[in-house]
Amino acid sequence: MSRDHILGDIRSPRWLFIKGVLFLVLGLLAGTILLLDSPTLRTTVLLAITIWAFCRAYYFAFYVIEHYVDPGYRFAGIWDFARYCRRRPWQRNASKPVAKSQSH
Predict the structure, then answer these.
(1) How far is CA 73 from CA 13, 68, 98, in A?
(2) Segment (H or E) for 27
(3) What is the per-residue DSSP string for 71-104?
(4) pLDDT for position 53
(5) Which strand (E) or helix (H) includes residue 44?
(6) Which residue stretches of the chain have pLDDT < 70?
(7) Distance CA 2, CA 75 (A)
(8) What is the DSSP letter of 68?
(9) Alpha-carbon dihedral of residues 53, 62, 79, 3, nearest 10 degrees?
(10) pTM attached to this predicted model
(11) Cα 33 to chain center, whole Å?
(12) CA atoms of 104 and 94, how far apart (whole Å)
């Protein structure tokens, strides 16, 4: 079996929801363990800032780029985004502003 066949995209809505729930459980478990290990206000605030910052980075990488910077590009994952950034497409398109999408 090829690697692509084994690691293909999940297309089943049921499995996509299960995957999302597992990510949520993993995050809650890790955060709970961290706070139980170091139950201080500092740890709580830093954890909250970390979660917020990563959520914003994810939003930037997968929503802002696709809707405002380069509407023709679609990302399959974080590695695709890294390769995209290495090409520096914003330098080529700096003189052409992209119209804002009306649908959100």
Answers:
(1) 24, 11, 13
(2) helix 13-37
(3) TT---SSHHHHHHHHHH-HHHHSTTSPPPPPS--
(4) 97
(5) helix 41-59
(6) 1-7, 89-104
(7) 22
(8) I
(9) 120
(10) 0.66
(11) 23
(12) 24
Q: The tokens 């939003």 sit on which residue?
A: 59
**What does the pLDDT read at residue 5?**
58
Which residue's structure tokens are 């003189």? 95
Q: How far apart are CA 58 and CA 104, in angstroms?
A: 16
d(CA 101, CA 104) in angstroms, rounded, equals 7
pLDDT reported for residue 104 = 47
Burial 18-34 (b: 16+ CB within 10 A, else e): eeeeeeeeeeeeeeeee
User: d(Cα 83, Cα 73) in Å, to the nearest integer?
Assistant: 12
Instruction: Give the position of tokens 């929801």.
Output: 17
Domain ranges of the chain: 1-39, 55-104
Nearest Cα to Cα of residue 61 among 82, 47, 88: 82
Task: Write the Ramachandran bin of 60: left for phi over 0, alpha for psi from -120 to 50, otherwise beta.
Answer: alpha
Go through the chain and tell me how many residues it has: 104
